[in-house]
Amino acid sequence: MDFKTFTVPSEGERITWEGDRLVVPDKPIIPFIMGDGIGTDVTPAMQRILDAAVEKAYNGARKIVWVEVYAGERARDKTGEWLPDETLKAFEYFYVGIKGPLTTPVGGGIRSLNVAIRQRLDLYANVRPVYYIPGLPSPVKHPEKMNMVLFREATEDVYAGIEWQAGTPEAVKFLTFLRDEMGVNLDNIEATGVGVKPISEFKTKRLVRQAIRYALQRNRSSVTLVHKGNIMKFTEGAFRDWGYELAREEFGDQTITEDELWEKYNGERPAGKVVMKDRIADNMLQQLLTRTDEYDVLALPNLNGDYLSDAAAAQVGGLGIAHGANIGDRVAVFEAVHGTAPKYAGQNKVNPTALTLSGVMMLEHMGWDEAAQLVRKGIAAAIQDKVVTYDLARQMEGATKVGTAEFADAVIERM
Ligand SMILES: NC(=O)C1=CN([C@@H]2O[C@H](COP(=O)(O)OP(=O)(O)OC[C@H]3O[C@@H](n4cnc5c(N)ncnc54)[C@H](OP(=O)(O)O)[C@@H]3O)[C@@H](O)[C@H]2O)C=CC1
Ligand SMILES: O=C(O)CCC(=O)C(=O)O
Ligand SMILES: [Mg+2]
């Protein structure tokens, strides 16, 4: 495969698939996007930590061969485009990659590149684990009760980008159609913006399938469908109904509903079965705080998943810790939950843990569990020793506040 915007390193090899198995060579080529804003702070720190862990775990027999692919401001400067096709092709070709955050302007300008990457590579499950690492500061009394994995649908919902600005001919045409042809009671058509929220059976079911499989493989107790289906009946309500339907159709022997749990099993979950629940999203946001340990795996439409990920992360260290992955059927691109935090860009200040733990998810996806464990150990020890970046230091007593690069050093020393 020929690329013009970057040179494929001669040293490494490509990760491939053999049937259902990911085949990872000893020197896999991993494409990465540096990211805008704090991307240039956290991405090199993450790479340094992962490199040290791989070196230590395999005594030099394995090595990640990084290759920068371009998106966002660096792509615009280099190629004149925000998201060159080649970048998407690189992720498709190399199958596993990682990205720093990319800026999206509010109210106008380019559409989200982060969303575009997920949509165009069909990375439909945005997976975000949220759990407590001992020693993390928290605004709640029992942060250790938090242990959830969010499966957020990442290709549709209001993120599909089907919307028109107030006063444009498209908005007026669409709203006039709704009023005149569909009988919708609308006034002020000339001064109304409008967006469309597609939620489909196929895309809901494939997301819920991944969530249930994950729960079964890891003996997690429940999968909760989080929706606002009382109000958005045919989108979020349908998300709930299709989720339950999928569980019945494909996992009938391995899942039970909450009603069955109480009626048939007296509240005692039978071994090997996952309890399917659903909650309305506003209630779920308070239950994150009040009944934290009653929730395990969550499956959510795109917008709910976006909101809930940051809210849940706040209970266990915040956005400096929150990590994740975008997983499709073949390709996976790992990324932190946070954005570009522009006010801290280039200051060697922010926490690289979120992107580094996303890198740990990448190592585990590759089957490099020994290296992943070393990184987890180093991060846990640095937090225990209270050697942390500003975000955690400001919530702790007796912490040693360090910069991004120095935190990476502290992790490496403790691996
Ligand atoms: N996937 C992606 O690439 C994402 C991109 N974005 C984009 O990022 C831009 C900025 O978005 P914004 O809403 O400000 O959200 P951000 O997540 O970028 O930042 C919000 C706040 O979270 C804290 N924070 C974020 N990252 C870290 C970190 N690594 N270490 C410590 N603290 C951190 C900071 O808090 P404090 O101020 O309290 O110190 C920061 O001000 C927007 O253009 C948005 O579209 C947003 C989310 C995801
Ligand atoms: O794409 C963006 O700019 C924001 C996306 C976001 O907040 C997220 O994916 O969590
Ligand atoms: Mg978000």
What does this structure look like?
The mean pLDDT is 98. The chain has helices at residues 39-58, 73-79, 85-94, 113-120, 169-180, 201-217, 236-251, 258-265, 281-290, 302-314, 353-366, 369-384, 390-393, 404-413; strands spanning 16-18, 21-23, 29-33, 65-68, 96-99, 125-131, 147-153, 163-164, 194-195, 222-227, 255-257, 274-280, 297-300, 325-327, 332-335, 387-388, 400-401. A hairpin with a 4-residue loop joins β14 and β15. α1 crosses α11 (353-366), α9 packs parallel to α10 (302-314) and α12 (369-384) packs across α14. It is α/β, with parallel strands linked by helices and 415 residues long. It contains 14 helices and 17 strands. It folds into two domains: 1-124 and 328-415, Isopropylmalate Dehydrogenase (3-Layer(aba) Sandwich), CATH 3.40.718.10; 129-148 and 156-162 and 198-318, Isopropylmalate Dehydrogenase, CATH 3.40.718. The two termini are 37 Å apart. The longest helix has 20 residues, at 39-58. 44% of the residues are buried. The strands form four sheets. An eleven-stranded mixed β-sheet has the order 4-3-5-15-14-6-7-13-10-12-11, with helices on both faces. A two-stranded antiparallel ribbon has the order 1-2. It has a two-stranded antiparallel sheet with strand order 8-9. Bound molecules: NADPH dihydro-nicotinamide-adenine-dinucleotide phosphate, 2-oxoglutaric acid and magnesium ion. NADPH dihydro-nicotinamide-adenine-dinucleotide phosphate is lined by residues 38, 42, 101-104, 114, 319-320, 335, 338-341, 350-351, 354, 391. It catalyses: D-threo-isocitrate + NADP(+) = 2-oxoglutarate + CO2 + NADPH. NADP(+) binds at residues 103, 338-344, 351, 390, 394. The modification N6-succinyllysine is found at residue 99. D-threo-isocitrate binds at residues 112, 114, 118, 128, 152. Mg(2+) binds at residue 306.
